[in-house]
Amino acid sequence: MIDYRELNSQLEALLSGVPHITASLANASALIWQNIDNLNWAGFYMIEGKAGEEKLVLAPFQGKPACIEIPLGRGVCGTAAAENRTLVVKDVHEFPGHIACDCDSNSEIVVPLRRTDGSVFGVLDIDSPVFDRFTDDDKAGIELLAGTISCQLSPLL
Asked: Considering the entire predicted model, what is its pTM?
């Protein structure tokens, strides 16, 4: 079982005082990749574009090459960002409008990254080749990690 509190402590130490968004996201994705088992992708998409034309754009990650742009409201990542809520998908093949960046992915969790005002600036996306990989404990733990990333990066935006 993963000790998400310990992992979050490591993440806080890794990101604390770092004034670089890309470097922080790169290290966060590496830490997640190394400490959570049965993953085939762990990384970030950031919202870019002017009002009404926003989309998610690929940011630092670990895993196979991925989709570069995802429209808000499309796929698991776009839906989580547009609805500002965590999505845990037991079987991505059954998710309406799923965008298959990697055909080996079978389950997914996407957690919004939020500014201090609660608005979404990106998402943490984690995929697994294992169906129904993410438990309620994983959801709570990964939301904890996303909260730490949000707190550390929000002032830099």
From this structure: 0.95
